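Budget justification aside, the reviewers requested a transparent look at the raw inputs and outputs of the sequence design task funded under Objective 1. We therefore reproduce one unedited record. The lines immediately below are the structure tokens for a 198-residue chain.
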């Protein structure tokens, strides 16, 4: 069951600068497939597992010691809202995967609470994705995926998994949670790839 924030307000007018079917909001709606898991920075970790089973893990302290970036990006939800010029702070996946040896083409993202989503590995590299832990200059709130979430702004926002805990590198693509329930396998907002068959 999805969870929506109260008082969500959006402007329904069509904006030529938005992907098709989207409308602008100044809010940051909360949508989740279940309750917010109680993840703290003390027990948070992120693990990359290669297709050969090799694991590399980072604690919260490890993550904070890595070079951070502050991307300002537009985000687009499959439920049709868009929020422009959002500012985040986090660690690029390029940094986290720099020393990981893999021949994988795909990744399955894992989150606390059991949520998963799949992505081509190329969509996580070359400055396209971050493990984000701040939003608008403040620590990322738990309802928005804190203490850390994946940020992949060029795809619909369900691909930016909340409460991220790991990345499994795969030779072949496999559907994640929403993809198994009929959402599009890729999720490009500019192509309006909301659901399977779009």
């Amino acid at each position: 069951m999805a969870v929506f924030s109260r008082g969500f307000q959006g402007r329904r007018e069509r904006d030529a600068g938005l992907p098709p079917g989207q409308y602008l909001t100044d809010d940051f709606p909360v949508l989740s497939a279940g309750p917010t898991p109680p993840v703290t920075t003390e027990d948070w970790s992120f693990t990359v597992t290669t297709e050969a089973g090799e694991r590399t893990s980072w604690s919260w302290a490890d993550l904070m010691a890595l070079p951070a970036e502050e991307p300002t990006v537009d985000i687009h939800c499959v439920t049709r809202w868009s929020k422009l010029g959002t500012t985040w702070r986090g660690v690029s996946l390029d940094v986290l995967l720099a020393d990981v040896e893999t021949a994988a083409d795909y990744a399955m993202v894992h989150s606390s609470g059991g949520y998963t989503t799949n992505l081509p590995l190329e969509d996580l590299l070359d400055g396209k994705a971050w493990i984000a832990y701040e939003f608008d200059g403040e620590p990322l709130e738990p309802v928005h995926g804190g203490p850390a979430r994946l940020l992949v702004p060029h795809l619909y926002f369900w691909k930016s998994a909340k409460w991220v805990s790991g990345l499994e590198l795969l030779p072949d693509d496999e559907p994640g949670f929403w993809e198994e329930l009929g959402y599009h396998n890729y999720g490009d907002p500019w192509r309006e790839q909301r659901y399977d068959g779009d």
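Residues 106 and 120 are 4 Å apart (CA to CA). Residues 60-65 form the longest helix (6 residues). Computational costs for records of this kind are itemized in the attached budget.
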